[in-house]
Design a protein that fits this description.
By secondary structure, the chain is of the alpha+beta class. The protein contains 13 helices and 25 strands.
């Protein structure tokens, strides 16, 4: 339940439709130093993703007589065939602390300006689109470092600061386009081998982590020559130094080892072929029950991964539960991975049909023969497994991870308000944003067909505050209009009230996609309907993607380079043993 939130925030905050926390995609011209300025460094970076050129950026770093630095960058960003011109100026102290920043994006819909300014020990970030504006304030302190979402040059400055010993290993990254400060850190450089065409080089990689974005700064002879965005799957490099591109072997995240076995299966859901993985207990462990994984929202694969987001939670949980004697099935959603179909137009009804087809496939598997079968839903998946249990008396039990009795419309409204308040928005700003959100919800509920059935003008007549860029972004949403409409019009609480099987409800304290207290609300609905076999477990310092997160809740994904919190599998395995003797 997160992609819709980013869409709404991009519209309400007027942000450019750029990839959050990606190590950039821009293009540019080089500024010439004046008589009062010294040219310290200059360069060019291009950024590629799967063979496509996303960004071409040129930058120069100048030093004034007072010792302060001025970074000037110009870039061209290419997204979905649209070219966006970016121009950036950042003023730094002699220690590379940001004093001011302004980035202008020239889009087909007009100019958008993102800025930041230090004044009196405060650091204010602002996003402006036409007359609409949104800003947040925070403390300007020694830990602060500015990292633009979409410009590589800021990472070049970070590399200089690291080399000169002017930035602590743990720092606070100001990300103006997200109006957020996100915890960051860099690791000591390690020796690596990288290639450009047929040439091989021995260099170093300094790994930088901003939230859950992991970027390797690749250097050779003390000079930054490239960046590898592990999270986003991007590669940036200096084409004057590496004309044949850049290829680097990065470290593989260690995952818990398991003796579990796997085999792939496929099955039909109407005219769609779905492909999944059966995870089986180790040979020495008897199978005692079977489990169906139902994933959260968006185009995610059987492991829970999407483009630019490697969650891997379902694979890890399947392996851990196999050790407890659980046979499990997880599958690629329609239009994702090896499954056929169209993810962009899939409705809630389509996804529920797929869940029912997967349930039949699990029960028909020889390895699950004669075993009690239950279902596990995560986020949006909790809605779907509740429907499954109401319609199939053979469901022996449900596990609901990060679920809620609220409708998706109510959840996204809560998300908008929660994030704005985290960013320091005033009551008036929150009220204005929620008024727009209510207009959006009303439109979706009464809509027809898919986004493609509406023109930008159609959307602007219904929601004039969108602006042309916002309307186009809404039409290109990864979540289909039919999917949103059916969820917004659904009544999950009425479905929950009809669930009669045993239920384990697991809530995460640091969840910002679903209200953390809604786990108890789920249990209350079940209890009121007479279901006495309900257990609620509230895990402290757990986020929505099932990772341990000791710091404060934040919409930026956290700790995805770490394994799923072991408490999740432990709670589920213990509940299974108590309920099913596994």
């Amino acid at each position: 339940m997160n992609e819709k939130l980013w869409l709404i925030l991009a519209v309400l905050l007027g942000a450019v439709a750029l990839v959050l926390l990606a190590p950039a995609r821009p293009e540019p011209p080089v500024e010439v130093a004046t008589a009062d300025e010294e040219l310290v460094a200059a360069g060019r970076f291009v950024l590629d993703h799967d063979g496509a050129r996303w960004l071409d950026e040129t930058y120069s770093l100048l030093r004034a007589e007072d010792g302060n630095y001025l970074l000037v960058s110009k870039a061209t960003l290419t997204l979905s065939g649209q070219k966006i011109a970016l121009a950036d100026q950042t003023l730094y102290t002699t220690e590379y602390r940001p004093l001011s920043y302004q980035m202008a994006a020239e889009t087909a819909a007009g100019a958008q300006v993102i800025s930041a300014q230090e004044a009196g020990g405060e650091f204010t970030m602002e996003v402006r689109v036409g007359t609409a504006r949104q800003s947040v304030e925070g403390t300007w302190d020694e830990s602060l470092f500015l990292l633009d979402n979409n410009l590589i040059a800021h990472y070049a400055i970070l590399f200089r600061a690291i080399e000169e010993g002017l930035v602590a290993q743990t720092f606070s990254a100001a990300v103006p386009q997200a109006l957020a400060r996100i915890p960051g850190r860099w690791d000591e450089p390690t020796a690596i081998r990288f290639r450009s065409g047929d040439a091989t080089y021995e260099g170093e990689a300094t790994t930088v982590r901003v939230g859950d974005t992991v970027i390797d700064l690749v250097s050779y002879g003390g000079r930054l020559v490239g960046l590898v965005g592990r999270t986003q799957g991007t590669v940036a490099y200096d084409p004057s130094l590496l004309p044949d591109g850049l290829s680097v072997e990065t470290a593989v995240i260690e995952r818990p080892t398991s003796q579990a076995r796997e085999r792939e299966i496929s099955f039909q859901s109407e005219d769609v072929r779905l492909v999944g993985t059966l995870t089986l207990p180790p040979p020495q462990t008897p199978a005692r029950c079977a489990l169906l994984f139902v994933a959260g929202s968006g185009p995610v694969d059987r492991d829970g991964n999407a483009a630019g987001l490697k969650m891997d939670a379902y694979r890890q949980l399947a392996a851990s539960l196999a050790e407890a004697g659980v046979v499990s099935l997880r599958y690629d959603k329609r239009g994702v991975g090896e499954s056929s179909g169209d993810a962009a137009t899939a409705s809630r009804s389509d996804l529920l049909a797929d869940v029912r087809a997967a349930w039949k496939a699990l029960k028909a598997a020889p390895e699950a023969s004669g075993l009690p079968c239950f279902a596990l839903g995560h986020s949006e998946g909790t809605y779907l497994v509740e429907d499954l249990a109401v319609g199939d008396a053979g469901v022996a039990g449900l596990v609901l991870l990060c679920g809620t009795p609220r409708s998706l419309a109510d959840v996204t409204r809560w998300q908008v308000e929660t994030l704005l308040r985290q960013q320091g928005a005033t009551d008036a700003q929150v009220a204005a944003a929620l008024e727009q959100e209510d207009e959006y919800i009303a439109f979706v509920k009464s809509s027809r067909g898919q986004w493609s059935d509406y023109t930008s003008d159609d959307l602007l007549r219904e929601m004039p505050w969108l602006g042309a860029a916002g309307a186009e972004q809404m039409r290109a949403s990864a979540l289909g209009l039919a999917w949103l409409r059916e969820h917004y019009n659904a009544d999950p609480a009425s479905v929950l009230a009809r669930v009669a099987c045993p239920v384990l409800v697991l809530s995460a304290e640091k969840d910002v996609q679903v209200p953390p207290g809604d786990g108890q609300a789920v249990a209350d609905v079940l209890a009121a309907s007479g279901n006495e076999e309900v257990e609620v477990v509230f895990l402290s310092d757990l986020n929505h993607l099932l990772r341990h997160q000791p710091e404060e809740p934040n919409i930026a994904y956290r700790h995805l380079d770490e394994p799923v919190d072991p408490r999740v599998a432990e709670v589920i395995a213990r509940w299974i043993r108590e309920r099913f003797g596994a």
